[in-house]
Amino acid sequence: MALSGVRVLELAGLAPAPLCGMILADFGARVVRVDRLPHAGAPTDVQGRGKRSLALDLKRPQGAAALRRLCRGADVLIEPFRHGVMEKLGLGPEVLLQENPGLIYARLTGFGQTGKYAKTAGHDINYLALSGVLSKLGRKDENPYAPINLLADFAGGGVMCAMGIVIALYERSTSGRGQIIDASMVEGVAYLSSFLWKSENMGIWSRPRGENLLDSGAPFYEIYRTSDGKFMAVGAIEPQFYNQFIKGLGLDSKELPDQLSISDWPEMKKKFASIFAQKTQAEWYSIFDGTDACVTPVLSLNDVALNQHNKQRSSFIKNDQGEISPRPAPVLSRTPAVPSCNRDPFVGEHTEEILLEYGFTKQEIAKLHSDKVIGFSKPKANL
User: Fold this and answer.
1) 344 is a catalytic site residue
2) How far apart are alpha carbons 71 and 12 in whole angstroms?
3) Smaller CB count within 10 Å for the chain: N or C?
4) Residue of 35, 45, 153, 182 marked catalytic
5) 123 assigned to active site
């Protein structure tokens, strides 16, 4: 795989950092999740695919020393803590890069390493708010709406950080030097949304939130409820696609207002909604399937793997526990991702194996274990 041979240490965290580590693992990197000791029960990382787990108490001097030693043999460190936490542990980038000048030290946080909020707590909704993007999300006459925690945490955080790591690895191939990645989720989601700023002069966002072409203002870019309580998504923007959409609804475009007559949009929405409510999702799917009307069913997570197109592309995969998840994307022609089908690791399941691999002796490992600096966890057999 493309990242085969890359050794990654991912300090256990929530949401964005685990996705970043999973992306790297999916494309071939050897990712070790460094879990905290003491730990309580199952790991909170549900994105542990392809990773191994080492349980280590970083608050103990011996634990911090062990991580420093691990970092000497690693290519990448992913750390998800607020600014200053790693420095207090003696594990800041100035220390680790001095010992391993080739290390890519990726710092993934909400607000970044500098600025007023660098040490402030926050979540996806806060980062989205500070980026300016949240102000654009929502329907007419309603409050801005945060769409789950996907945009800042995962797109602006985990994915952007993974991209930064790959860029830094590529640069290292010529310079031989590592560097620090300051991945701010505020800046990541803002950068992801560059189109919002770049399109300001096009007039796309000239009206209040929820009244524009792409933010649920237009009747031909909307979601409609069907008679069985399901939904259809409509994205018939271009005239040729809009005409096919109108035809599928059984309407005559000559008897309707002009597509871009904004003053008629609210009434057209009501008209389209009443028509969609007369048939089931399956019936509408059969009407629009195979056309260029840009009308698709809104599939549930339980339905996506059964969709014909998704099945043909093997877009969703099963692990050995029967759990379904998306296949890694994008698909590379020569060196595609080959995601692990094994279950996610238990906390500390691979502690001894990883330490041996990084050059620790069995005696050193036994001492660390007796001092409760590291932890072991072996899966129980299913009887």
Assistant:
1) no
2) 15
3) C
4) 153
5) yes
